[in-house]
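Protein modeling request. Please complete all fields; requests missing the sequence field cannot be processed.
Requester role: graduate student
Desired output: 3D structure, token encoding
Chains: 1
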Amino acid sequence: MGFSERRADQGPAVRVRELLRQIATTAGLDADVVVEEDERALTGAFVGEDAELLVGDHGRTLDAIQHLAYRTAFAGSSPRKSVVVDAAGYRARRADALCAAADQAVETAVSEGRPVALAAMNAIERKLVHEHLRDRHEIESFSEGEEPDRHLVVAPVVG
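Delivered output (159 residues):
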């Protein structure tokens, strides 16, 4: 019996917890798994000495695990909700860094009167930055380019 067959009768949080434990065990990592679920989201986290190893280059490994967790949680079912997987607090550190870069881009765009492009980021990160900047009336933000080089631009509002 395969992984999905064994877990089909269990809820999304249980399926995600089992998947994340299986990943940590198979990778031979010393990391605990914590999974929480509320009405809006299901969150999973790898915690422990080796958890950082699951982040990968610019969070790509963690993003892949998150995609697998989403597919595992809601395979063939609805309604669906967001699934976020973190390791060693990477998501919060990355959000802080993105917001700081966006704030610096705002300062440059306003003081120099020109658009400023941020580094390429995935759709979730671009959304986070757009949300961070939404109340800044002196600038506008928009996305440009094609994946995987799609990036956010901060431009001063003219007029």
